[in-house]
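Protocol step 4 of 5: obtain the predicted structure for the target chain.
Materials: sequence only (see below). No template structures provided, no constraints applied. The aim of this step is simply to have a reference model before the mutagenesis design in step 5. Sequence pasted as it appears in the construct record:
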Amino acid sequence: MGYRQPEGDQMQMQIGELADRVGVNTKTIRYYESIKLLPAPARTPAGYRIYGPDDETRLTFIKTAQHLGLSLDEIREVLALREAGTAPCEHVRGVLRQQVRDISRRIADLRRLRQELQTLDAAIDNIPRDAAAVCRIIEHVRSHHQQQAATPSKSSRGGPVRPPQTPPKQPPLAAASAR
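Step 4 output (structure tokens):
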């Protein structure tokens, strides 16, 4: 049936105990079995799954790799390399370097978004009210992005949202003294 046999006199545990020891739920363990990240477990005569120390080690490895940002497919590749007798550390190093590049790009994107949101927040009171609009703020951003798309831009996001153009207001005294 494809199930492993219990591992002799090594410690054996059922799925709930393994889940508790590693800090995942039982559905996660079953899912990893279904996608072949974990081998099919041994079974008791009553059909209960039985796991040993190797299963705990592998499950802990999977969790640690996920913590580092590896996808389940990437983890599968690492495990396959190891099972083929190849040390996967250089492969993992390449994956981690790509993770760093991706994180740096996302941080830059988030910084641009933060600036755009701060600029938008400062401009909200100057955005004309439109009774037909669902939300004048979102409509302003939509129209800004449409304008940016119509003109060549250096930024893939179209740059920060600018406040609507209104003439500067001068206090009455400043206007009178300027004459």
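Step 4 remarks: The longest strand covers residues 42-43. DSSP finds seven helices and two strands in the chain.
Proceed to step 5.
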